[in-house]
Each structure stands twice: as structure tokens, then as C-alpha cells.
Design a protein that fits this description.
Oligomer: single chain
Shape: globular
CATH architecture: 2-Layer Sandwich
CATH class: Alpha Beta
Distance between the termini: 31 Å
Radius of gyration: 12 Å
CATH superfamily: Ribosomal protein S16
Number of helices: 2
Order of helices and strands: EEEEHEH
CATH topology: S16 Ribosomal Protein, Chain: A
């Protein structure tokens, strides 16, 4: 099973909020998640929250982050 770290869309029309999740790569975008790793609000960057200990755990197990999730992780580390 290949695990990816990617975004799951929430919110209402034209005001999305994304959840950062670990998910099987064969699942749909809003499919069943394995674990919730954080939250990303593109309208208010102060509400971006990434649980770095969980992210590091999944990365050590071989999970592959998408480009957007990788940039969010890098921003939260600095």
C-alpha cells in the first residue's frame, strides 16, 4: 500500500478549507483517510496547523507528500 500525504477539501463553495491527511494513493481525493495530520486555510494563513511529529512519523515510514503538502510542511518548520 502506497501512502501519500495530501489535501482533502472541506468548507463551502468558494471558501475551501483543506485537511492535511495520510491516505492510500488509490483512494479518491475525499476518500477514507488513514490519519489527520493538520489543517490548511488558504484565506487565512494564521490558521495553518501541521502536526510535525505525525508528519515525520509518516515520512519515516515511506509516505510521499504532494508538492503542496511539502511546501506547507517546509513553511511550518521555519
Amino acid at each position: 500500500m502506497a501512502v501519500k500525504l495530501r489535501l482533502k477539501r472541506l468548507g463551502v463553495k468558494k471558501k475551501p478549507i483543506y485537511r492535511i491527511i495520510a491516505i492510500d494513493s488509490r483512494e479518491k481525493r475525499n476518500g477514507r483517510e488513514i490519519e489527520r495530520l493538520g489543517l490548511y486555510d488558504p484565506h487565512n494563513n494564521e490558521n495553518t496547523n501541521v502536526k510535525l511529529d505525525l508528519v515525520d512519523s509518516w515520512l519515516s515510514k515511506g509516505a510521499i507528500p504532494t508538492a503542496t503538502v511539502k511546501s506547507l510542511i517546509d513553511k511550518s518548520r521555519s
